[in-house]
């Protein structure tokens, strides 16, 4: 009996989740204050990776994360996301790719204070579709339960601790089921206990859902608990190595 072969040589099947090649970012181009922040940077992230992005202030971490997140245009270079080039897309196409492919968790949770936790989580679906379908409402409830907030769904942000608010933000980042979540100092405003709890939630969601994470952090404890560390210094990758966990 001859078995039909499954094609695995399509770009999306074999390509890394994201690939940046010779990326440069220059601010104030052509002006006396022209400053190049990223200098020919190369970076690949595979599916299901959990990566920390570290480096001193001014090393280019936030700029790189904004480029990966399709929030800023690079000056030159190439960027492929899920095997497809995105660096030449117009703003409308970039917005669509950002909604469908990327989730964001910031240092400041940016929850709407007048909305409940559940309503905050469903906001990306509301923005994408103009309404919250029953499917997305149930998904939001499931995500809040997954981050330990099943009893706080109807509470507003002001009724939640800082760590709980950040967990709501994590659930919000996952509502559209993105393959990649970008987290910029997600525990930077939390105490040690809350920071550890939020990080554990990220690791558990990564393990259970196969989501890739890129986490910018100044906390060496958290960086050491990731699977790979990428260190930027002066706009270049100074170190890129896997972390062995015993």
Could you write a compact summary of the structure shown?
Helices cover 35% and strands 25% of the residues.
Structural class given helices, strands, pairing? Answer: alpha/beta
Give the distance, in angstroms, between the N- and C-terminal Cα atoms.
45 Å
Shape: globular
Q: State the CATH architecture of the domain at 13-110 and 179-242.
A: 3-Layer(aba) Sandwich
Rg of Cα set = 19 Å
Main CATH class of the domain at 13-110 and 179-242 = Alpha Beta
- Give the CATH superfamily of the domain at 13-110 and 179-242: P-loop containing nucleotide triphosphate hydrolases
Major sheet characteristics: 6 strands, mixed
CATH topology of the domain at 13-110 and 179-242: Rossmann fold
Summed over residues and divided by their number, the pLDDT gives a mean of 87
SSE string, helices as H and strands as E:
HEEEHEEHEHHHEHEHEE
The proportion of residues forming helix, as a percent range, comes to 25-40%
Poorly predicted parts: 1-12
Number of discrete helical segments: 8
Strand order, biggest sheet? 6-7-8-3-9-10
Number of strands: 10
Strand content: 15-25%
